[in-house]
Amino acid sequence: MKGVLPYNNFEHSPYGMTYFGHPTGRGCDGRLVIDFIALDLGLPLVPAYFSKGKDFNQGANFAVIGSTALKLDYFRQHNITNVPPVDTSISVQLGWFDQFKPSICNTTEACKAYFSKSLFIFGEFGGNDYTFVLSAGKSISEVKSYVPVVIDTIKGAAESLLKQGAMNIVLPGNLPTGCIPIILTIYASPNKTDYDHLGCLKHYNTIGSYHNIKLKKVVVQLQTKYPKAKISYADYYKPVIHFLQQPKRFGFTNGAPLRTCCGGGGPYNYNLTASCGQPGVSACSYPSTYINWDGIHLTEAAYRIIATGWLKGPYAHPPILSGYHK
User: Is residue 80 included in any domain, yes or no?
Assistant: First the structure.
């Protein structure tokens, strides 16, 4: 295992068990937010850019599990070495996008016309950056010092797409860091006052909330600068909090909202040395009754609700389907 995230497990069962019946490279038991958005728009599931023999005329997915906003060199320069072995940061993904463009449009004007009718889901970025900084032993205040750099990177990348003709961009925020089983396990505290009424680590949640405040400001800035475009802030934070506040209302009836479905035991069923996808680690029988799938990522059931909230509200501002440029 390299760093904090178990990179090599996603190609093993029980990943993909709920919908596909086999692993697909998704960090989930089934479909992701982007899958549900595609289906709602009448599109096929968006193929990964590096898939062989796929049709990309209706979309391409450049996302990589464990990817960061910042380049890996940036982390290494700051003595943060618990990072992925390969750089798949924003700049790298934009490079892939540049390589991809000639397959769908041949001129600057043709690309602008094509992108004006396209939907760009840009992220979520930042969560992995902060996890890697935390894993280097940095304090929460030190982690927060990286937020402006991450936000500037996201802003610059989003603006590059707008300059190329993008008219519909969705910028997802961060999840509540202190409610994620991997964080709850690694940074467990004997002090009960470190936890909120939901059982989340209060101070760790301030990382995600600080990032999201900054990102919302970027959305306003970009929308002001590019008034003809539609730029949405998509919320991951509020829905997860809502799930924890009223789990049964959303169908999460397992009785332990912070426990993960697939894991190797412990208070949150998350174990760094026995994580989902490793030999001997099993999944729960009914993933749809859980919020969290593997200690890091959410279940298909959670992603479905979030996707609906992004498409129609209340979890995106403005919702994706309101005033969508076609």
Answer: yes
